[in-house]
Design brief:
Radius of gyration: 18 Å
Pfam families: Bac_luciferase
CATH architecture: Alpha-Beta Barrel
Organism: Fodinicola feengrottensis
CATH class: Alpha Beta
Shape: globular
Strand order of the largest sheet: 1-2-3-5-6-7-8-11
Strand content: 15-25%
InterPro entries: F420-G6PD/mer, Luciferase-like_dom, Luciferase-like_sf
Protein name: LLM class flavin-dependent oxidoreductase
Structural class: alpha/beta
Number of helices: 11
Number of strands: 11
Largest sheet: 8 strands, parallel, barrel
Distance between the termini: 14 Å
Helix content: 40-55%
Length: 275
């Protein structure tokens, strides 16, 4: 399944003020990362504002959502934001979409929006993409779908440019291969056009920060024991070799990582980007 060139993204929430956020964007670009991605949560700055600022202080860095939660906007409003960012960044925006974490039910209520069923939230994603395509005209905003469940994988195959393989830290290698196959089957003739993405929770051999342990729900020993694909341990060369093995097995060429580990991954980015 090898063939698509590697690229890398940094996932970060703009929590430290405007200067820290601008500096992070510049550093990501200097280290060779392709994208700076930000989550969608009412406790953080709005993605649209944050990503516009990041794009304004960089020249080649792409920006994107990781991911825009369907319960927090109507599809038309989400498409308006996405098309606006695509236009104002001159095509450097990538729209990541997902159904949102369970906490989004309360956040949707804060915004006066209804919280749809799982199927309803997927329909919101589909409708958002349709609205974006209408607004884009001859342009094309790349769309990523967080493909955590079977229906999300089916939708990713039908409409996404990028399929993010979601589902937790303990999805096995066999299960990952099966999930990629599901997306490709749903994509039909456009299967080879889909870029597959994998998110890393932990990089290198240093101790995991406590908040990462809490988010993942496991310590390093457990991740190692269960051969977690959320972990990329070892030396830079060992990490390079492992990512190449994963691309050969699953076709995953777009690798994202939390900003706390961006310096650890930077040597790998330098060696693999574009190859």
């Amino acid at each position: 399944m090898a063939g698509r060139a590697f690229r890398f993204g940094v996932v970060a929430a703009p929590q430290g003020g405007a200067k820290q956020w601008r500096d992070l964007a510049v550093r990501a670009e200097e280290q060779g990362f392709s994208t700076l991605l930000t989550p969608d949560n009412l406790h953080f700055a709005a993605p649209t504002v944050s990503l516009a600022i990041a794009a304004s202080v960089t020249t080649s860095l792409r920006v994107g959502t990781f991911v825009l939660a369907s319960p927090l906007r109507t599809p038309r409003a989400a498409a308006w934001d996405a098309h606006s960012l695509s236009s104002m960044t001159e095509g450097r925006f990538e729209l990541g979409l997902g159904t949102g974490l369970p906490v989004m039910k309360d956040q949707a209520a804060e915004l006066g929006l209804s919280y749809e069923s799982a199927g309803g939230r997927l329909r919101q994603i589909s409708d958002t993409i349709d609205h974006v395509r209408k607004l884009d005209g001859d342009a094309h905003t790349p769309v990523m779908i967080a493909a955590g469940g079977p229906k999300a994988r089916e939708l990713a195959g039908q409409k996404a440019d990028i399929a993010a393989l979601a589902g937790g830290a303990f999805v096995t290698r066999d299960e990952t291969a099966e999930r990629v196959a599901e997306v490709r089957a749903a994509a039909g003739s456009r299967a080879d056009d889909i870029e597959f993405s994998m998110n890393l929770f932990v990089v290198g051999d240093a101790d995991m920060p406590e908040w990462v342990k809490g988010f993942v729900g496991a310590d390093r020993a457990t991740l190692v024991e269960r051969d977690s694909l959320a972990l990329l341990p070892g030396s830079p060369q060992q990490m390079v070799d492992e990512l190449q093995r994963r691309r050969d097995a699953f076709g995953t060429s777009y690798v994202t990582v939390n900003s706390v580990f961006m310096d650890d991954l930077a040597p790998v980015v330098a060696q693999l980007t574009g190859k």
